[in-house]
Amino acid sequence: MPPGASPTEKPKGNAITRWFKGQSTSGKIRIIIVALAVVIGGPIAIIAAQSAPSAANVGDCMSGQTAESLKKVDCTDASAVWTVVGRLSDKTEAQFDAEDDPCSSFPTSETAYWEGKKGEKGFLLCLAPKK
Predict the structure, then answer these.
(1) Is residue 90 very low, low, confident or very high in pLDDT (cuts 50, 70, 90)?
(2) Cα–Cα dist 35/87, whole Å
(3) Is 8 contained in some domain?
(4) Three-point CA angle 61, 65, 70, nearest 5°
(5) 56 and 45: one domain?
(6) How many of the other CB atoms lie within 10 Å of CB of 103?
(7) What whole-number distance in Å separates Cα of residue 65 and Cα of residue 33?
(8) Residues 61 and 124 in one domain
(9) Is 4 inside a domain boundary?
(10) Do residues 44 and 69 both lie within one domain?
(11) For 26-61, b where at least 16 C-beta lie within 10 A, e where not — what string?
(12) Residue 37 is part of which domain span?
């Protein structure tokens, strides 16, 4: 080794930290924002999916008075006003609208809720007042 030459240093950190250090400041900010969105948004999305009407089954309780506000809640929750007494699959919105009482086979049912994509089959919840 010639005088005054220094030995080659091994790069510090693993490949990910070396890659991150090589990013511009704005690139680092974008990466951090995306990471925070995943870390914070992921659990929020999971919780929201668990309270969505699509997660409800017979015996579950619901809160809300409109299709937009309807959500699955614990039956001990003070906001619970409905009990799911029936769940029918493979129903189109047209079938839901065409029938006088799509939940007629569930005598305690007072209202019905349909969810699905327009023109495709979805599901129907038959709801009775929570007692």
Answers:
(1) confident
(2) 38
(3) no
(4) 50
(5) no
(6) 21
(7) 36
(8) yes
(9) no
(10) no
(11) eeeeeeeeeeeeeeeeeeeeeeeeebebeebeeebb
(12) 15-50
Say yes or no to pLDDT of 98 above 80.
no
Of 52, 105, 111, nearest to 83 by C-alpha is: 111
CB 40 within 8 A of CB 59: no
pLDDT tens across 34-51, in order? 888 888 877 766 665 566
Of the two residues 6 and 80, the one the predictor is more confident about is 80
Alpha-carbon gap, residue 11 to 14, rounded angstroms:
8
76, 114: one domain = yes
Q: Are residues 27 and 73 in the same domain?
A: no
Token pair for 38? 């995943």
How many domains does the chain divide into? 2
Contacts of 1 (CB under 8 A, 6+ apart): 7
**Domain for residue 6, yes or no?**
no
